[in-house]
Backbone:
């Protein structure tokens, strides 16, 4: 993702046709996402990923279980303006305690994209991504070395081959499924898709690990959350390694983070 300081400037707002709208910083998105009327602006992830994802989600058929925001073109046609991309604003809010519902919505999204080919930017031959999340994903799947840490050593010792087929996956579901207000029913929305090429159940496993480590869901529920997912135990191990490696790369792995993750490590490793 581009590193952008502050709000989108006037030229960006004009490019997306929202120069007359009031800007509002949105919760989430690491403080980098803004709403202008019915449009959400965020720093894009580079031309290749951004244009590919916009093309996919512009045409993706929605179902009774999930929808996604549609990408917004600039007034001149491209999907990007400077460092920014734009998306349709959809009402709703994340609820990280509803992990079973998040997984259900994520499963529907993954079924809808299961037919898509692997994009070239996710090929094994591409260089390791520079961002911590992309690098940690490679580490959790054996394509790069994990950070030196006894906790990650325990998890790596539990790695076994995963024979479930890979496909395009949303690897950060828990905070990126929006549920509508009960007073105004609407289909849940899947937002902010960071594409990866992994077994479909990996998205559910990351959501489950996040829910237990950060949102008070009991460790004992881990098994039930993926009762129908092939290779669930191993996907949980990989998901936990991915999250811990990411914290290392962000410089955020400390005693408090270790304490949050320890019960899950103990359960899985």
Residues:
């Amino acid at each position: 993702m581009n590193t952008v300081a502050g709000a989108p400037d006037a030229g960006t707002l004009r490019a997306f046709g929202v120069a007359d709208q009031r800007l509002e910083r949105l919760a989430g998105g690491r403080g980098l996402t803004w709403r202008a009327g019915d449009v959400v602006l965020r720093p894009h992830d580079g031309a290749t990923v951004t244009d590919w994802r916009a093309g996919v989600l512009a045409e993706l058929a929605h179902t009774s279980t999930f929808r996604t925001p549609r990408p917004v073109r600039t007034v001149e046609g491209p999907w990007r303006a400077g460092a920014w991309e734009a998306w349709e604003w959809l009402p709703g809010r994340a609820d990280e305690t509803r992990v079973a519902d998040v997984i259900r919505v994520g499963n529907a999204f993954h079924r809808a994209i299961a037919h898509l080919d692997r994009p070239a930017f996710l090929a094994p031959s591409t260089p390791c991504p520079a961002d911590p999340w992309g690098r940690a994903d490679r580490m959790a799947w054996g394509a790069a070395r994990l950070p030196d840490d006894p906790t990650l050593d325990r998890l790596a010792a539990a790695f076994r081959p995963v024979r479930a087929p890979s496909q395009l996956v949303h690897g950060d579901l828990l905070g990126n499924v929006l549920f509508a207000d009960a007073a105004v029913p609407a289909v849940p929305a899947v937002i902010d898709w960071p594409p990866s090429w992994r077994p479909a159940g990996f998205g559910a496993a990351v959501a489950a690990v996040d829910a237990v480590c950060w949102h008070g869901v009991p460790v004992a529920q881990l098994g039930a959350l993926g009762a129908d997912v092939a290779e669930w135990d191993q996907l949980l191990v990989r998901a936990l390694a991915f999250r811990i490696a990411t914290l290392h790369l962000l410089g955020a792995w400390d005693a408090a983070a270790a304490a949050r993750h320890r019960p899950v490590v103990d359960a899985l490793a």
